Structures are given as C-alpha cells and as structure tokens.
Amino acid sequence: MAAFSSMSTKKYSVRSFSFPARSHPSTLRLEEELSKRRCCWQGASSSNAETLCTGLFGLAELYICIEDLLNLPLTRQALAQHHNEEWGNALLDCSLKHLDLCANTRDAVLSMKQSARDLQSALRRSKAGELSIKSNISGYITSRKTMKKGIANSLASLKQMDDMFREFPQLEQDSHLSAVAAVLREASVITASIFHTFLSFLSPSMLKPKPSKWSLVSKLVRKGSAEQKMNELDRVDAAVSNLQLQGWEEEQKILCALLNLECLDAVLESFEEGLECLFRSLLHARVSFLNILSN
C-alpha cells in the first residue's frame, strides 16, 4: 500500500507556510512539531510497530499544539470573522472523520487484543482438550476478518479526505489565518499518512479462510526468506494457520505461537495507549475549533 503522503505531494502539494516574524511561542512549537512529523512520514511506505507507536504519540503532541494555536486571541478573532467559509467547514468535517477513524481503529485493536489473549490462554491450557483450542483459533480468525472489513471502511474514509483536499481553497486575505489554515490542512494530510501506514500494518497479509495445506506450506516457504520483514501480526497469523492445518499436538508449534502472541500483546497494548492519547488530543482540538466557528 502506498503511503498517503507520497500521493498527497503529487495531487495537492502542501505549500510551505510561516507565521509572522514575532511569533508566539505556541506557533514556534507547532512549526517544530510539524517539521518532525513531516520528516518522519513524507515518502514512507511502511514502518515497524515501534515507529508507528512513536508516530501516534507524536501526532497527539501535534494536535495539542494545534489546540494551543486555536486558543490564541489572534487566531480566535481571525477564525470568528471567517467562520462561514467553505474551508472552515471542510476542516471541521475532516476533524470529525479523524475522530471516527481513530475511535474505530482503537476498537479494532482492543478486539484483536482480546481474541489474541483468549487464544494465548487456551494454548497455555492445551491439556484441557482440542475443542477449547479450536474455538479460540476460530475466534482469532474471525477477529482478523472483522478487522479486515473495518480497515476497508477506514481506507474509504481516508479516500474521501484525499478527494476533499484536491480542491482545497487557498486563503490570501489574512496572513495569520492563511498560516492557520495551512497548518490544519497539513496536519490532516500527515494524520492520513500515518493512518494509511498504520492500517497497512494491521491488515491481514496471509491469513485466509480455510486454506489448503499445500497453499499454506507454499506461502510459508516463500515467506521464509523474508521472515525478518514480517510484523508481529503477520507472525501470529502464520503461527495460527500452522496450528489450524497441521495440528497443535506438537509442543514446538504451541511454544512458537505463544511466543508470537506474547510479542503481539505488547505491540497492541502500545497501540491502544497511543490511539487513546491521540483520540483525546483530536477531541480537544475539535472542540476548540467548533467553539470558535459556532460563536
């Protein structure tokens, strides 16, 4: 999956901006955060769990800075004078889509974490019998299918924002307001870029419904040389498919699955924390923006 940022620069390049020379400390901090996020994500097509988690927390910090910018008297005055313009409504709609996207992704991660923990518990109690393990393997696969559908919906939402920014109006009448609009616009593009990469990480790559034994072995052989490129979810998917088709009587297969599930649990826990932090920052920034435009 291509990163959103690479597509964005081709379709509607984000123009550079700057606040007046004697900027408030809030704007200087914001410009620094935007520069960090831009350098980290522009042109990136994939990322590991640690980088993604860092990106979520960095994005949360960016929206804290945006909230500070929105609450500056100069910003509030400028926005209040132009509150009925198309660009404001577009950004407000975009902020709602970001909130929904973050909340839905967080719920998917929580559901995935619970099903993975249920499977982990069942494998640890493998002496309890085959039926228990079968049920939890089925539950894990169902969660992955549900996540796949959710990811498709989220990508469709991102596509709507992509289309919206193609014809995004530029502001020329107020230098400060123009800079604020540019900040909000670029933050939205960076947010979409991070979520594209994040959703790509979460998307199932090799777990298929009822695969044949030969097709699975063939895939595992092809994947073997590139195992280092597989993320934590890919490894659990492979281990679960291996258990499903070749049985779980072998202790080595159970231990392999348990090890991968343990690593996955730590990753999903970090994602949950990052998404929760980002959700709060997005919500606070939206409330500030909404309050200004509605007055």
Total DSSP E strands: 0
- Principal-axis shape equals elongated
The total number of structural domains is: 1
Rg for CA atoms: 22 Å
Instruction: Tell me the series of helices and strands, N- to C-terminal.
Output: HHHHHHHHHH
DSSP strand content: under 5%
**What structural class should be given to the helix and strand makeup?**
mainly alpha
- Helix tally equals 10
Please describe what this structure looks like:
It is built from 10 helices and no strands. It is mainly alpha-helical and 295 residues long.
Task: Note the main attributes of this structure.
elongated; mainly alpha; 295 residues; disordered N terminus
A few lines on this structure:
The protein has 295 residues and is mostly helical.
Could you give the topology of this structure?
Blueprint lengths: L3 H8 L13 H17 L7 H22 L2 H9 L4 H39 L5 H37 L8 H28 L10 H12 L7 H15 L4 H44 L1
Helix pairs in contact: 1-7, 2-3, 2-7, 3-7, 3-10, 5-6, 5-7, 5-10, 6-7, 6-9, 9-10
